[in-house]
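We include this case.
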Amino acid sequence: MADHLDLHTVGDLLHHYPRRYAERGELTRLSDLPLDEHVTVVAQVADARVHTFNGGRGRRLEVTITDGSGRLQLVFFGKGVHKPRAELQPGTRAMFAGKVSVFNRKRQLAHPEFKALGAESGAEAVEAFAHQLLPLYPACKQMESWQIQQAVDTVLGPAGHEEAALAGLVDPLPDSLREGRGLATLPEALRKIHRPATKTDIAMARDRLKWDEAFVLQVALARRRRAEAQLPAAPRKPVPDGLLTAFDARLPFTLTDGQRRVSEEIFADLATDHPMHRLLQGEVGSGKTMVALRAMLGVVDAGGQAAMLAPTEVLAQQHHRSITEMMGELAEGGMLGGAEQGTKVVLLTGSMGATARRQALLDLVTGEAGIVIGTHALIEDKVQFHDLGLVVVDEQHRFGVEQRDALRSKGKQPPHLLVMTATPIPRTVAMTVFGDLETSVLDQLPSGRSPIASHVVPAKDKPHFLTRAWERVREEVAAGHQGYVVCPRIGDDIGDEGETSKGAASPSPEDEAEKRPPLAVVEVAEQLTKGPLSGLRVEVLHGRMQPEAKDDVMRRFAAGEVDVLVATTVIEVGVNVPNATAMVIMDADRFGVSQLHQLRGRVGRGSAAGLCLLVTDMPEASPARARLGAVAATLDGFELSRIDLEQRREGDVLGQAQSGVRSSLRVLAVIDDEEVIAAAREEATAIVADDPELAGYPELRTALDALLDKEREEYLDKG
């Protein structure tokens, strides 16, 4: 139990809440039994026989029951035959509860629960059995739900006497808060969640237990925000008429109102003497990189250095290329032809040659380079900065906290931190996961961006739609544009780690039914070249290629020398080719909602309209098709992130942001419980402001220690 479910103490067990409750169901007549539903019937045993099979080694008990309206067969196998064989003699009247299935065209109940009824059992006993709420716990193969229920029953003791077992519990909620909000006591809530008499009991218990989770988590975040505000940092104010002014003067367009507003928020933070902690979220293509670059230039103006951390080499190279292009001679400080107020912009990745790497490291330690863009190679011990003032992390969810922390420790004082994400995060998730970061949102697209039309292509139901999809790609190429084809896998069944659809939903019954391996880049590229896209210049791009080869393909695609790029999700973030207008995503159902939205953002980046075709083999009524329909129906990333969250469990959301730490949320649903989270945040902030060390709240401290075991405490400290 300890290893598989992470339950080590009695407290862990009591806080392992039922996932849902089965009702045995209204009493059903045998003649009206619905298939695949849980039913409860009262009937009499007409016949009971044991059959053997496998040469006498296997045993099966078949019991026929009748209630006057019809007959039904019950089956029990293996060791499970002993009890029913003894108790279900012909003539016995009993209640049976189970799920109706069909075998040999006959309805049956396999291994039903049953309770024999004595002659004195009246209608009340029957009703009580039928309506009892049976807790179903999150379980695993080694520990079934009913075994967990037995363990909980052992701890709680006999019904009506639970108080004694629950007396010593630590209650994290201060009495004043609990009473003020009309919440149940902790013993009452735990009794009602494990042994509810009614659905009202369950609702009351959940309301209380949600508060525990939201409140303790928000106290942890509030304490952290307070601690961060105490840290010293060097204020970085851009000098007038410096690098930033020169850069703004050469921009061929004006910033959007959103970009101006967010830049002002960032510059106000940079001017203070404690570290900025800001999350910048913006739609795909809303111009986050421009905002981040202006912040970096402002820090260089103030005498510091700025580092931008990208999740992949392709992206680091792309950022380096686009930033040096935007800056022009300003990126050639100290070089012939460079502007006098310019600076050096260096790239640092793991696959660089030794000479280039040595030069980049030298430029950083001397301060010659004001801006460095790189992958986690930036974090290595060898990398020393002259004066690191700002760290920009692109695509937060791909970086572990340890990595962010290692980079922050390279400053003489903690550097300012700007975290960027193109996956819009609903406000509640931001409050729960990034509760320690101030949030800025860019929600308008720069002018010149074109709308993207998205359509679902049901390849199995309507093969001619797929034929038309390839014709559309040819039409775009004929009009002088380019396209992407995205596949979930690289090919050859090499363990494409990091390139399978990370955000993909877990296998659904439809996936299971499919059993077809996801389509692979290498094979699809070959089929397209020989078939529907023959004659076009088709190339592949995936994470297993050598960095030089990847960079070469991307450079030629950007230069218009490649018509169609068949790629994995390496193109998901930040790839910017304005001439690419069409994208076909194969096996789109194998990607998550946010990921599809990210991928789609690679087209429509120029003046021509974008087209995104989501190809799937899933049947029309499946949840996967509904998910794709939602993506096709809206370009609003915030709306999609809500849909995504509602379809995935929060554990995934918190799990990935909490650097793999198991989500502590058991009853709190981040999307549905927005009000609880907001209220808990207010209460937590007030308590921490009043008593930062929580000296007056010993129980709350204990609960915090339990939530933030050492690993998590460090995690939260690192931010």
